[in-house]
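Worked Example 4.2. Consider the chain below.
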Amino acid sequence: MSIRGKAIAFAGESGLGKSTLAAALADRGASVLSDDILVFDPSEDPVQAIPGYPRLRLWPDSAAHMFGDPDALPTMSPKWDKRYLALNGKYHFETRPYPLEALYICSPNEKQRYPESKPLSDTAGLMTLLAQTYPSPILYPPDRTQQAETFAALKKLIATVPVYQLHYDRSFEHLFDLCQFLAESLIPV
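Applying the procedure from the previous section yields the following structure tokens:
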């Protein structure tokens, strides 16, 4: 996401509402850089977030919440119920890289009425991001060169980009609060 010219990213397991959050932020004027996979360039200083494709993938309940009906958005394929939101017109897609200002590890909690973030240590950030790396070094063990490159890239990322644990209630009822929190509290003007 790009909010007022600053890129932020969300990481976490599937189903935590990252794309729904991105769609809600886009609905409020933020620009989308990518969905599902964030490519970053660790050779740049500062680290650059590279744009992906101009779509957000949403489950039917998110499409229904945002657009009144899950069928308001087309399906990704005839055999898959996930919908897609084209990032054109009202919704803006960034086509150029942006410096990555912060990375948020999504940790929803239904008892978390007000969103909050807590900085992660370098070690905790590295371990959490390693689990989010694609392809997973755990499921698809890379060769030693790839392993070294992955660790070097993640090490540079956490050394230069703040990593936060983001606690929030992921219900649609609290989505506006989370957008406000990110737009106002975490990204200074």
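The radius of gyration is 16 Å. The chain has one domain: 2-120+163-184. Compare this with Example 4.1 before moving on.
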